[in-house]
Structure formats: C-alpha cells, structure tokens
Amino acid sequence: MANVHRQMQAGFLVMPAALGAQVLGMMLVASYLGPHQFGIFSVIFAIISVANFVAEMGLGTIITKLVAEAKQPAGHHIALALPVVSASALFGAAVQLAIVWVAYADSDARAAGMVAAVNILVFGVSMVLSCALRGLGEMGKWMAGFLGHKIIFAALVFGGHALWGGGLVTAVAAWTAASVLVAVYYGTALWGKVWQGQVAWNYAQVRALLRESIPVGLISAANQFGMQLDTFILALLLTDREVGLYALGQRLLNPARNVLHGAVSTPTFPGLCRLASGDREEYGRLASRLCIVQWMSGLPLAVLAWVAATISSSSRDRSSGTAVACMSSPRCER
C-alpha cells in the first residue's frame, strides 16, 4: 500500500511535467509551421495516434499484467510479444503511409508521412518494453522514459528550427526521433534483468496472448479514433489552414485530459494486478480508494475549466462590445 502511495505521488509530479513539455512542443510546432502546415501535421499526428494503438494490439496492457503477476519470467512474455507487435506495426505503418499519400500530393506532407511510418514501427516495440518495466515495478525508469520523450521532442523541435529552420518533416521527425531514443533507453534498462536464458516460443502461447490482448487493443484504438474523429472530419470538410487553427486548441487540451489517468491509473496498474492475483480483498479496497482519489482530483479540474471558460467568454464579449461601440463612435476616428 505504501508503494502504491509513492507511485501516485510520483505520478502527480511526473505526469503533469511530461504533458506540460508535450504542450510546449506542440506550441513550438504551431508557431514555427503556421496554420496551414500545422493542419497537415495535426492530421498526420492524429493518424499516428490511432495507428499506434492498432499496431500495439493491447499487448502493452497485457504484458504489464502478466509481468506483474510473475507467474513466468518477464523475458518469456517479451519474447512472445515482440515478433507479433513488430508484424502488426508493419501493417499499421503501411496503412498510415497509404492514407497520407492518398490525402496529400505535397512532397513535404508525403515525406512527413514516411517519417511517421517509422514512428509506428517503433511504438509497438517501445510499448512492450516500457510495460515490462512497469510490470517489474521499475516505475521510476518508466516515468523517466515518458518524461524524457516529451522533453526530447520539444528540444528537437526548437533545435531543428533554430539550426536550419526545419518545417513539417522536422516536426514529425522530432517526435519519431524521441520515440526511437526512448525505446533504446527502455531496452537498455531491461538488459541485465530480462535478456538472459533461452525462452520458449510457440504458437499456442501466442494465440492465448492475442486472445487476451486484441479486445483491449480494439477498445484502445476505438477510443483514440473517437478522440481524433473531429480532426478527420474537419480535414475532409475544411482547408488545412482552418484545420490547423482548430487543432492548436485540441493539441493543448488532449494532454490535459490525460493528467489524471497518467498520474493515478498508469503508475498503480501493476500493483493492482499483483493484488488481484494474490489478495482480492485488499485489491477491492485499494481500487475503490483510487476511484475516490480520481474523482476528488478531477472535480477541481472540472471547476477550474468551467471558471476559465466563463472568464474567457466574458472577456471576449466585453472586447466585442467595445469594438462595436468604438466603430459607432466618432471619437474612435480621431
């Protein structure tokens, strides 16, 4: 129980910092690219968000659960998952690349789509490795990777623009390069503890793993598709510039929505898995307490958002009224 509390405390520190770094990176991208190219970037990023979870097929969540239960060595589960997720990532990358090439004739957009396809190839492997760390209780290393990815992304966006005035391809490459570096970090962190001994691999075990993971993956992909649906619809109906103007607010809002999930649910999930397989009564008590913590934490955020929206709306109305009054006043002409 004390370990779960420590994980939650670390989560409330690390997750907002990581999501803040992501917001900063997105703001830099938007300011450097302008509305038109940021609209294209947002569509490509939305495709990546959905394709990543299709390619990952829920294996990350299941690997966390299996490693945390400790019924078999962690390396066994990783060896089962990596070939499967790599094959599905190839399919996801091909679909993503095809969509971008059909949607855009611009050479920069197509080049960015190719770089984004590399990100999909990396994401599944990185997810399996990072979730194995979570299952092993190495939450500090997992959080370092999560935070590091967002910081590296923002730094690469800033550096790419400062050094050579990088555009759309540079922005997508910054996210992809950060993903590659973090995947290497996760693999290195696991090296001494997992990559030892011979691991059996057979189709029966793979089928059992997929039966458990695919429903989770489909739900996650559907959730991501729902979150990105507005971007897809607007991309079909409006210009890239208008999509970019809308997407800036969305890219700032999406990380904020993940603060509570990242701070509470993600760090404590492995501990809940261990309790569920060993002490169901304690699991029930802890799970109900975590639900209360999320509710108590989410309520102030909702109130804050409501107050901020009200103030913003009132300010906008006053500004609009002042402008109208000024237009009708002879004094404004002087």
Description:
The structure is a single chain. The longest helix has 55 residues, at 2-56. The chain is globular and about 55 Å long. The model has no long low-confidence stretch (mean pLDDT 78). It is 90% helix and 0% strand. The chain has 334 residues and is mainly α. The chain has 10 helices and no strands. Helix 1 (2-56) packs antiparallel against helix 4 and helix 2 (59-69) packs parallel to helix 4.
Number of helices: 10
Question: How helical, in percent, are the residues?
Answer: over 70%
Proportion of strand residues: under 5%
Shape: globular
Low-confidence stretches: none
Task: Calculate the terminal CA-CA distance, rounded to whole Å.
Answer: 70 Å
